[in-house]
Design a protein that fits this description.
43% strand; five-stranded antiparallel beta sheet; 6 helices; 314 residues; OB fold (Dihydrolipoamide Acetyltransferase, E2P); 4 domains; mainly beta
Length: 314
């Protein structure tokens, strides 16, 4: 028995924290440390080692040091995994953006605090010549870091320019960006053409307000009523919930532990996603490195995302 098996055997009897429980579905990625006939030790990207049992034919093709994604069910112990699939060299997969314009139109380029509509046309402004040059959205992170003056031609707004205080807060996290028929403000999605009213609980009266002022009023906790749709946008009767709140999270599948899917966001940060409201079979069909875009809401501290829908890219 090699030292890997001995060390792992010891770890199986030592309790360790885990998001999943025996019988829960797991998807993890890591490096092959050692293998037997139908067993393999995988050191996950998170640093934990797993004792994986799988089909002998799948194990025989693996090599020490090779990267692999494993999916299956957690066994009796936290470090035990009964695999129903091995995906060798999965880390070499490329992540491609959706090919259809319709899919791309709803996506957001997230970089640091920036939130940039991926389908917009962006231009770099040259102060010397006074010329605008169209640039690819994928090049924006480096251009913004370099201090280039960037203009969003689609929305006719500066993204970065001294006239907007340097960085336009409308394109930052929590900012408001005009998305045509909708106003997007953080997790809020507000139909632009609707009539909104603020409710004064003291006088029990409603007062029409400018649509553009609604995001700021929501941040202040004001009670907002949508007269067009005849329903509350924000009110104590909703118990914190609102049909006007809908967040989006785009990234790549990093791991699955029970009902928690970890997505590596476009900004390179891992985000735990609660998938308890999704169909289990849809979650189990996911593979490491696969691009996904989830609909739902972040928690109050924006540390966890509750998914209500999940779209899978190619």
């Amino acid at each position: 028995m090699s030292r890997y098996w001995m060390l792992l055997a010891l770890s199986l009897v030592i309790p360790s924290p885990a998001l999943a429980a025996p019988g829960d579905y797991l998807l993890l990625h890591g490096t092959v440390a050692d293998k037997g006939t139908s067993t393999v030790v995988v050191k996950s990207d998170g640093g934990r080692s797993y004792y994986v049992t799988a089909d002998a034919s799948a194990v025989s093709s693996l090599r020490a040091g090779e990267m692999v994604a494993v999916r299956g069910v957690e066994g009796t112990y936290p470090n035990e995994l009964k695999a129903d699939g091995l995906d060798p060299d999965s880390a070499k997969r490329s992540w491609r953006a959706p090919s259809s314009a319709a899919a791309a139109a709803g996506m957001t380029l997230s970089y640091k605090d920036w939130r940039l509509p991926a389908s917009d046309r962006y231009e770099s402004y040259n102060t010397g010549s006074g010329a605008y040059t169209q640039v690819e959205a994928s090049t924006l992170p480096n251009r913004l870091d370099a201090g280039e003056l960037i203009y969003d031609r689609t929305r006719e707004l500066w993204v970065q320019h001294p006239s907007v205080g340097g960085r336009n807060k409308a394109f930052m996290e929590g900012g408001t960006v005009d998305t045509g028929s909708m106003i997007t403000h953080g997790d809020w999605r507000l139909p632009r053409g609707n009539r909104y009213e603020v409710y004064d609980s003291g006088s029990s009266s409603y007062r029409v307000v400018e649509t553009a002022s609604v995001p700021g009023r929501l941040d202040k906790g004001e009670l907002i009523y949508d007269r067009t749709a005849a329903k509350w946008v924000q009110h104590p009767s909703l118990g914190g919930a609102s049909t006007y709140k809908s967040g989006r999270l785009a990234g790549r599948v990093q791991s699955i532990e029970g009902a928690t899917l970890t997505v590596l966001g476009d900004d390179g940060k891992p985000v735990p996603v609660d998938t308890s409201k999704l169909k289990p079979e849809a979650v189990r069909a996911l593979r490491f490195g696969q691009p996904v875009e989830a609909s739902g809401l972040f928690d109050a501290k924006r540390t966890k995302f509750g998914a209500t829908d999940l779209e899978v890219g190619k």
